[in-house]
Design a protein that fits this description.
- The structure is a single chain.
- The protein is an alpha+beta fold.
- The protein folds into 2 domains: 1-65, no CATH class; 84-130.
- It contains 1 helix and 9 strands, in the order E-E-E-E-E-E-E-E-E-H.
- The strands form 3 sheets. A 4-stranded antiparallel β-sheet has the order 1-7-8-9, covered by helices on one side. A 3-stranded antiparallel β-sheet has the order 2-5-6, with no helix packed on it. The protein has a two-stranded antiparallel sheet with strand order 3-4.
- The longest helix is centred in the C-terminal third of the chain and has 45 residues, at 84-128.
- The radius of gyration is 26 Å and the shape is elongated.
- Bound molecules: zinc ion.
């Protein structure tokens, strides 16, 4: 499977002249900055229309022009770009799974509390026996 190439485009004007706020490290060996991480700030669009305004961007497949969304792996690290509808479907399924897991954990906790309560009742009954 070929790796999907993406680009970021301004939602306001469509330009891909987008600047992200990020931090860098200085690499003394190569005598250049190395990108470290992007900040959470909105990016800036440098087009003549937007002239450095903060903008929202959309992720676009370079080959097909399809609009994409990012999907994180369960560990929150692995990043994948999928068509928006697919990404939303994956997020919807994950959300349902999380809700089911919460419900299962709640049911297990309730069963454990009931077991303890039953054991306490039996112990009291045992103590009360002549
Ligand atoms: Zn723009």
């Amino acid at each position: 499977m070929s790796v999907r190439k993406i680009n970021f485009c301004c939602k306001t004007c469509g330009s891909d002249d987008i600047v992200f706020d990020s931090s860098s490290d200085w690499n003394a060996e190569t005598q250049s900055y190395e990108h470290r991480d992007c900040y959470d700030h909105p990016p800036i669009c440098n087009s003549d229309d937007c002239m450095g305004e903060e903008v929202q961007v959309e992720i676009v497949d370079i080959a097909t022009g399809e609009k994409l969304d990012s999907v994180y792996g369960h560990n929150g690290v692995a990043l994948q770009y999928l068509p928006i509808a697919e990404a939303k479907e994956i997020e919807r399924i994950r959300s349902e799974q999380r809700a089911a897991e919460r419900e299962q954990a709640r049911a297990q906790e309730q069963a454990a509390r009931l077991a303890i309560s039953n054991a306490e009742t039996l112990a009291l009954g045992y103590e009360a026996m002549p």
